[in-house]
Amino acid sequence: MINKDFAVCIILNKKNEILLQKKDMGYPWFPGKWCLFGGEIEEREKSEMTIKRELKEELGYSLDNLKFLGIENYKDQCEKHSRMGKQHIFYHKYNGKISDLFLKEGAEFAFLSYDELNHFDIVSHDLKTIKKYYSKII
Fold first, then answer.
1. How far is the C-alpha of 92 from the C-alpha of 9, rounded, in Å?
2. Which letter does DSSP use for residue 72 in this model?
């Protein structure tokens, strides 16, 4: 089992819709599934630095207002691979338009309402994270 820590961000727009990314089919972890934006915390990197770096890399977006929500343990299984670790969770209120964002990684991205979440194939630990923290941040 691989041990990796990640930083992710729950990004809400003015309508309190959540920005999610759909992994492309060539991605080794959960191809075709929707997930929160974020990435692996690199050696000697603080989780806040990670999420800022990842959102710049994935969306071309620089964060100013970032709130730390907590740390959750996770365990993933995808085909023959398994990993576990800690997921550092952040929150950001996005006041721009989706057209101001540019997807650099993944197949697509969209703002989804809370009610729409159950109609999309979302990585289970990300869905659990969203449901746990959503009511605390709206």
1. 7
2. E
Give 41-86 pLDDT, tens digit per residue.
999 999 999 999 999 999 998 888 899 999 999 998 877 778 999 9
Domain residue spans of the chain: 2-137
Listed as own residue / partner, the contacts of 93-100 with beta carbons closer than 8 Å and 24 or more positions apart are 93/11, 93/12, 93/13, 93/65, 94/11, 94/12, 94/13, 94/19, 95/13, 95/14, 98/13, 98/19
What confidence tier does 103 reach under pLDDT thresholds 50, 70, 90?
Answer: very high
Superfamily of domain 2-137: Nucleoside Triphosphate Pyrophosphohydrolase (3.90.79.10)
